[in-house]
Amino acid sequence: MLAVGIVTEVFGPHGQGLPGFDFALCADRPGPVPTDLGVPLTVTHGLDRLAAADLVIALPGAGFRTPPGPAVLDALSAAHGRGALVAAHCVGTFALAAAGLLDGLRATTHWRFAALLADRHPQVSVEPDALYVDEGRIVTGAGAAAGFDLCLHLLRREHGAATANAVARDMVLPSHRDGGQAQYLAAPAPEDCHDERLAEVLAWVRENLHEPLPVAELARRAMMSKRSFARRFAAATGTTPHAWLRGLRLSGAEELLETTDLPVEEIARRVGYGSAAVLREQFVRRRGVPPRSYRRSFSRTP
Question: Pick from 32, 119, 247, 283: CA 20 to 30 A from residue 202's CA?
Answer without folding.
Answer: 283
